[in-house]
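Module 6 notes. Inverse folding takes a fixed backbone as the condition and produces residue identities as the prediction. Think of it as a translation problem where the source language is geometry and the target language is the twenty amino acids. Below is one complete input and output pair. Work through it position by position during the lab.
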């Protein structure tokens, strides 16, 4: 009995000495490793150098939302205005008339021909419906949010030229109570948008895939339901600095950032190069001259740029 008591006492003393020699971990340190001593509050010794206060960035920040191919929409951005006019010097050429035989009650009224409406020259020589744009703008004002609409009225595309943001949908509709087939061509005879058929008035959403790029992509529209005079354009763009000239040839690009740009003028072309006919001699289509393009370098710095003029001839 005495031997058992001494053994128990010996074990208790041993464990007590071991416990007294342990260091209690600091709060938050559960590894059992002693916490490092706190850094000195002052006096001599190595001390951390305070970080310099960063200079505030006053550059306008991008606005979250739709963007195209990396274009950045800047918040509260104003910029400058670039304006001018596209003209035709001298007498305007006679309107090109295209044969109109299919669905005359809807398309042609009492006239068996329709004007091509490709070259629109006003009384003062201004050219309407020419495209004016800046090349390669990386950041600036917000892109338009409204979805553009293409209608078919009286066997004509209205508007003839539709500008839309890359990757966004276009509403395509028909107000005519006759058959229309809309084919979208991408510079060749393969329609990337397929065949959109309108047997009755209605509306569909069209989405094209123009891919990645910093230049516009042009899609030509044609109707192959016997209305071979029907042509138009869809133009996919990557930034908002695109505009069609007014009837008097004037244009205005607003909210342009400072910088050096190529100002581009594009026109779809107006001459009939070839009239295509079928075996019976009926017109099946027209081949028009290539689009017309002009380029001029401009510098936008501290003020608006106005009075620019371009002539198609």
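Target side of the pair, the amino acids:
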């Amino acid at each position: 009995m005495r031997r058992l008591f001494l053994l128990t006492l010996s074990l208790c003393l041993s464990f007590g000495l071991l416990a007294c020699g342990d260091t209690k971990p600091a709060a938050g340190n559960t590894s059992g490793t002693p916490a490092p001593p706190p850094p000195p509050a002052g006096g001599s010794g190595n001390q951390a150098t305070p970080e310099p206060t960063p200079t505030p960035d006053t550059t306008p920040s991008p606005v979250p939302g739709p963007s195209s191919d990396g274009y950045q929409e800047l918040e509260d951005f104003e910029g400058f205005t670039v304006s001018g006019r596209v003209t035709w010097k001298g007498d305007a050429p006679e309107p090109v008339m295209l044969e109109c035989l299919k669905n005359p009650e809807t398309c042609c009224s009492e006239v068996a021909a329709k004007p091509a409406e490709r070259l629109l020259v006003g009384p003062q020589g201004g050219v309407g419906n020419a495209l004016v744009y800046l090349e390669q703008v990386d950041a600036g004002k917000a892109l338009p949010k409204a979805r553009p609409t293409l209608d078919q009225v009286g066997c004509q595309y209205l508007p003839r030229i539709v500008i839309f943001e890359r990757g966004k949908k276009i509403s395509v509709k028909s107000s005519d109570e006759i058959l229309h087939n809309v084919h979208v061509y991408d510079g060749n005879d393969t329609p990337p948008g397929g065949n959109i058929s309108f047997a009755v008035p209605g509306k569909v959403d069209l989405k094209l895939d123009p891919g990645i790029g910093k230049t516009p992509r042009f899609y030509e529209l044609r109707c192959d339901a016997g209305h071979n005079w029907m042509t138009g354009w869809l133009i996919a763009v990557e930034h908002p600095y695109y505009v069609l000239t007014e009837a008097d040839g004037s244009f205005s690009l607003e909210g342009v950032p400072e910088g050096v740009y190529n100002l581009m003028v594009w026109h779809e072309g107006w001459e009939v190069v070839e009239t295509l006919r079928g075996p019976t001699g009926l017109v099946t289509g027209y081949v028009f001259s290539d689009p017309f393009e002009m380029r001029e370098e401009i510098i936008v710095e501290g003020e608006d740029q106005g009075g620019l003029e371009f002539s198609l001839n």
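Reference fact for the lab report: Residues 1-69 have pLDDT under 50 and may be disordered.
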